[in-house]
Amino acid sequence: MLGLLAGLGFALTAAVTSPVLAGVAAIAVMAVLTGALHIDGLADAADGLFGGGDVARRLEVMRDSRVGSFGLATVVLVLIGDIAALASMSPPRALVALVIAGAVSRWALLLVIATVPYVRQSGLGVAAGGPHRRFDLVLGSAIAAIVCLLDWKRAAAAVLVAVLIAFLVGVMARRRIGGATGDIYGAAAELSQLGVLVVFAARL
């Protein structure tokens, strides 16, 4: 549903303005509907994972509401990547890409939840990492598989990219902070979304 609404925003804006502004509109719709939660997580994760200090210090940085240089740079680059990828597509392809990106990126988030231990005692990620996480992954996999039928050839490549991104995010989180946090989940979703959009923008 999220991707569909963003895709409609792209199509409507593209009909009266430029592809770049249509891309901005689509990403803005997604940010508004999610409360920019995953974007905030991406910023915090970048600040924590790339910052110095020990594990405790990195976790403290990720809790800080202020955005550092790593977080700002990462968010800007990812959003530019999202918009640039969308701007290179026709409205019909962008609509399909956004729907699939919405499903696959959330599935990648569930993959990280299911495979990377949660390191905090509190936070939004505690509930997500409960005993139901395996069921959530199975359900998310089924939904993503159905959505991917919209363009299964590109979607197959996009899923591989999303799996790779989720794996790398998980590996880095384990090495830098010992596991995952809610911010890591958000980073996995945003980076996977970018990966999917880049695949659909490619001339496959």
Please give the structural blueprint.
Blueprint: H1 2-14, H2 19-34, H3 37-50, H4 55-63, H5 69-87, H6 91-115, H7 124-128, H8 133-148, H9 152-177, H10 182-201
Helix pairs in contact: 1-2, 1-6, 2-5, 3-4, 3-5, 3-10, 5-10, 6-8, 6-9, 6-10, 9-10
Brief synopsis:
The protein contains 10 helices and no strands. By secondary structure, the protein is mostly helical.
Tags for this model:
mainly alpha, globular, 10 helices, 204 residues, 80% helix, single chain
Structural class: mainly alpha
**Beta-strand content bin:** under 5%
Low-confidence stretches: none
The gyration radius over C-alpha positions equals: 16 Å
Structural notes for this entry:
- By secondary structure, this protein is an all-alpha fold.
- The chain has one domain (36-201).
- It contains ten helices and no strands.
- It has helices at residues 2-14, 19-34, 37-50, 55-63, 69-87, 91-115, 124-128, 133-148, 152-177, 182-201.
- Helix 1 runs antiparallel to helix 2 (19-34).
- The longest helix is centred in the C-terminal third of the chain and has 26 residues, at 152-177.
- The two termini are 26 Å apart.
